[in-house]
Every structure is written in C-alpha cells, then in structure tokens.
# Entry
Amino acid sequence: MKTASLIFLAGSLIALPALAQERVWRCGNEYTNNATIAQQKGCKIMEGGNVTVVQGTRASGGGSASSSSSGGSSAARSPAGSPRVEGVDQRARDGEARSVLEAELKKAEARQAELQKEYNNGEPEKQGSEGRNYQKYLDRVAEMKAELARNESDIAGIRREIARLPAKQQPQ
# Structure
C-alpha cells in the first residue's frame, strides 16, 4: 500500500510542472514558447513570473494579408469604414485649412511684434511698484521673454502645418 501511494504522489508531482507555464522566450517584440525557433532567432528566456501576451492589431502600413488583398494603397492610408472623399472636396478642405492656418499665422505674427515692442530688447518700462521692487521687474521681464519664445514656437508650428498642406492650386 505504501508503494502505491508513493507512486501516486510521485506521479502527481511530475504532473504539477505541466500545469505551470512553459518556458517563454522573448525575440525583440515577439514572444515564443518554441525552443527551436528561440534558438534560431537568438531569443532570451523570460524569467520571473507568468507572461501574458495580448495580440494587437497590425499597423495600417504593416502589409498584412487582409489589407493587401482588400485592394489598393488607399485602404492602407485611410481608416477602415471611412468615407472616400472626392478630389474636389479634398482640395476645398485643404484650401479651408490653409486659410485658417494663414489667419492664425497673421494673428501670431502680430502678437509677436506687439510682444517684442513691449519687451524693448529686454528693458521694458517699469510699472508701478517695480521701481521699488526690482525683483518684481526681473520676474516680469523673464515672463515676457518666455512668452516671446512660446509665441515664436507657435509661429514655427503653424508654418510647419502650412508646409504639410498640398501646394495651392492656381486658378485655371
């Protein structure tokens, strides 16, 4: 009887590792539990706990079989289910976007000129109690300098956005 229970106990201890997770290797951003593939790719074994891998969706430019067989390069550029925009409509949208961005650029450039005039090359006129409290004046000058830098950054960003738009179509 003792022999039978020892064999049963030994058999159950052998079965326990089968319930545990298999070895998992990491190959860059991919994971595998196949030792031969891991050796071929030079993968590193993962240690220290269970690994859960959730399959995500492929990037639109990933070249998966479903997007390449669904026809054409336009499927890779636009999200699934989005309506197709005709060329005339797209040019109208681009023109509208350009006019909005150009208006924003004019406002930002006007604001920049105003800020530079007020900043007066780092020596703006003192206001109120700043004559007695020099640190207050220095703080205001530092704020003005930071605002000039932010506005200049905004102008550069607007110009980049305008440059991304298709070239303006000349009337024919």
In short: The mean pLDDT is 78. Residues 87-119 form the longest helix (33 residues). The beta strands are 25-27, 30-32, 44-45. The chain has six helices and three strands.
